[in-house]
Amino acid sequence: xxxxxxxxxxxxxxxxxxxxxxxxxxxxxxxxxxxxxxxxxxxxxxxxxxxxxxxxxxxxxxxxxxxxxxxxxxxxxxxxxxxxxxxxxxxxxxxxxxxxxxxxxxxxxxxxxxxxxxxxxxxxxxxxxxxxxxxxxxxxxxxxxxxxxxxxxxxxxxxxxxxxxxxxxxxxxxxxxxxxxxxxxxxxxxxxxxxxxxxxxxxxxxxxxxxxxxxxxxxxxxxxxxxxxxxxxxxxxxxxxxxxxxxxxxxxxxxxxxxxxxxxxxxxxxxxxxxxxxxxxxxxxxxxxxxxxxxxxxxxxxxxxxxxxxxxxxxxxxxxxxxxxxxxxxxxxxxxxxxxxxxxxxxxxxxxxxxxxxxxxx
Length: 362
Known about the structure:
With about 350 residues, the protein is mainly alpha-helical.
């Protein structure tokens, strides 16, 4: 009889003779149990590191995503076991896409309308300038356009969440796992620094609460750091930063759609239906659908809060899984030039946000 393979989640020891002298075979274990078991090693590894990252974040006031990235990179040798790969891939891909869908429950069209036409157009200009700077800096530093799109999109929209969404469109065949992990790390570091530095810049410019909130919400990458930076300035600035940042998050869907049309899906090059190439990713459709539902009939606060908590968990697991699957030796081989797209896009985001804040918010 044929034994279960190691990749199924059982090792040779698991396939020893039973008590009656009979071999334990693949047919002796329900297919459903085998299907679930193959994910357990990777998921357990991700969950353990995510819990550790959360604990460290709460006790040392550092972003959980940044800590999860560092822990995953430091312990990536644990992912050398191929039996963990199925669970890691599930967290990095399935968890990510489900998390992006749930973000739609945090967005309403009325939030976008609240900021006014001039600030909204300024926000679009800042995001466009940031995105273009990421692409331009990638080309100047000898990186691929795809690396620039990833860095520019993450900087322009919502940090790690946008990077994860864009990576699912760009695909592993166009940009290496090492480059992706380095981009995530640079974005997380930039967000952590910005949460402290940008409120100081706003104070030095003598901005009022609304203007400071606009600056911080428009320039800080990740959602949690943008909101935290705003509230560190004042409660009013925090409320304004939240609205501005959520508006950027709402624009994730159109940006991913545009990138998908520009580059094509990661498995859509060459032959294939033109109609299929134009089809948006299912998780973006889900994001838009929930955002529209929430705009027409807002969900109860308990549902929204639960969805927000689940989203944070899923994205944290996705980042952890990505770090675990990344090879630090390849990241080191990329060199300092590979960080230039994120650095350039971050600087462009800050400078353009300061300029527009002084022009329209004072």
